Amino acid sequence: MTDVLWREGWLKPLSIESLPNDICSICKEEFEDLDFVAACEFCEIGLSHELCCNKHITSHHMNQLKEKINKHREKRLHSHQ
Ligand SMILES: [Zn+2]
Ligand SMILES: [Zn+2]
User: Fold this and answer.
1) What highest taxon heads this organism's lineage (predicted)?
2) Which residues of the chain are under the pLDDT cut of 50?
């Protein structure tokens, strides 16, 4: 079984000046123009590059992620009944 993780939602432009941090809270590099950013939904680490965030989630929140995937599977089973 292969699961992919779809981040739902619209691309929302944010101005760096309006953010609490102008560096990625994971790799500590400055954000560049048109970088894709994301926030971890499992902790309050703050804004980071989308790729850093993805790696952070799979390395730090594997249990929570699996839980979420399992919950989703259960729901899907129910809707087929
Ligand atoms: Zn980063
Ligand atoms: Zn996190």
Assistant:
1) Archaea
2) none
